């Protein structure tokens, strides 16, 4: 995945749901913090972008996520044409640490504008350590590989990830405990 594809996904998702802002929560939100040329291959392998619509409540968020998924999701004409898909997600998709909204990274430029130049759409990407905490709570092999690649490239702060894991909602505490144990065993003396 490339940064320009992320920008295209932000623009498309906003147009699909008729909003000017969305949040990028999946692995490709790392492209809000780094250019793809600065990232290890394991950090840009995904061909899907997880978009969290911004809405008044999670029911509306889920409805908007379904709209995105229906138009640009996996196996859609959008994916066939552009080589990547946009997955609409809701607030229950990721384990997001306390205060995550105050740390999001803004992606807004000429590539996120409508063809007329207006409106200017905005994608808010998860902070890199919040992203790693969420990925480690999911704990799939691809998620651990993603975080490991960023740690090996010295692009994320191990202690900050561990701190963020301690701030995930109670329903993710078991996953966070497992993630912290993995992080400690992986990072060793760095933590």
How would you describe what is shown here?
The chain is built from seven helices and five strands; from the N terminus they run H-E-E-H-H-E-E-E-H-H-H-H. It has 191 residues and is an alpha/beta fold. It has one domain. Strands 3-2-1-5-4 form a five-stranded mixed beta sheet. It is globular, with a radius of gyration of 16 Å.
Brief rundown of the structure:
This protein is α/β, with parallel strands linked by helices. The protein has seven helices and five strands, in the order H-E-E-H-H-E-E-E-H-H-H-H.
Detail the topology: elements first, then pairings.
Elements: H1 3-17, E1 21-24, E2 48-53, H2 58-72, H3 77-82, E3 85-88, E4 105-107, E5 122-125, H4 128-138, H5 141-152, H6 158-165, H7 173-187
Parallel strand pairs: 1-5, 2-3
Antiparallel strand pairs: 1-2, 4-5
Helix pairs in contact: 1-2, 4-5, 4-6, 4-7
Q: Which blocks of ≥5 consecutive residues have pLDDT under 50?
A: none
Number of domains: 1
How much of the sequence is in beta strands? 5-15%
Sheet bearing the most strands, described?
A: 5 strands, mixed
- Secondary structure tally, helices: 7
Termini separation comes to 30 Å
| Helix content, binned percent | 40-55%
Overall form: globular
Major sheet: order of its strands? 3-2-1-5-4
**Roughly how many Å is the radius of gyration?**
16 Å
Assembly classification: single chain
Mean pLDDT: 94
Total beta strand runs:
5
């Amino acid at each position: 995945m490339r940064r320009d594809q992320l920008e295209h996904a932000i623009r498309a998702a906003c147009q699909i749901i008729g909003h000017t802002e969305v949040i990028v929560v999946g692995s490709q939100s790392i492209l809000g913090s780094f250019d793809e040329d600065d990232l290890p291959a394991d950090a840009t392998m995904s061909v899907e972008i997880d978009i969290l619509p911004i809405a008044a409540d999670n029911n509306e968020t889920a409805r908007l996520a379904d709209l995105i998924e229906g138009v640009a999701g996996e196996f859609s004409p959008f994916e066939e044409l552009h080589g990547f898909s946009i997955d609409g997600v809701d607030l229950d998709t990721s384990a997001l640490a306390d205060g995550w909204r105050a740390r999001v990274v803004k992606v807004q430029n000429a590539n996120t504008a409508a063809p007329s130049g207006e409106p200017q759409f905005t994608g808010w990407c998860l902070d890199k350590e919040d992203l790693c905490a969420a990925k480690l709570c999911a704990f799939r092999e691809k998620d651990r590989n993603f975080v490991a690649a960023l740690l090996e490239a010295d692009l994320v702060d191990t202690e900050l990830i561990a701190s963020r894991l301690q701030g995930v909602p109670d329903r993710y505490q078991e996953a966070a405990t497992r993630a912290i144990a993995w992080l400690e065993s992986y990072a060793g003396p760095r933590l």
